[in-house]
Structure formats: C-alpha cells, structure tokens
Specification:
With 71 residues, this protein is mainly α. It contains 3 helices and no strands. Helix 1 packs across helix 2.
C-alpha cells in the first residue's frame, strides 16, 4: 500500500511540474517534449542512451544558440 501512495504522490508532483512548463512557455513546448519522448521510444533506446541523446541535444542547442530565435 505504501508503494501505491508514493507512486500517486510522485505522479501528482510530476503533473504539477509539467503544468508549470505549459503555463510559462506554451502548449507547443509541451507537445515538442512529448514528440521527443515518442521519438526516443520509437528508436528503442535504453534509458542511458535516451539521456545521452537529450544531453547531446542540450549541448548542441547551447552551441547553436546564436541561431535560435530569442524572445
């Protein structure tokens, strides 16, 4: 029973944190994040490979930041 309570608590916290992202950056950011996760799943990556891919993307975004639209 305790496991289910912890699981429910985690999922509620996850939901609240993601709602904040939607509110601050818009729904399109939410959809892009969902699309990224679906792509990682489609590619059948391990958790470590998925994390490494996201870290690489983050580093690439920082490197190419001069080419991204600033708001």
């Amino acid at each position: 029973m305790e496991r289910e309570t912890k699981r429910a608590s985690y999922l509620e916290k996850f939901k609240r944190e993601n709602e904040m992202v939607k509110g601050l950056f818009g729904r399109e950011v939410d959809q892009i994040g969902t699309d990224l996760v679906e792509l990682l799943k489609k590619e059948d990556l391990t958790l470590d490979q998925a994390y490494a891919s996201l870290q690489y993307a983050y580093n690439l975004i920082k490197y190419e930041s001069n080419f991204l639209r600033l708001k």
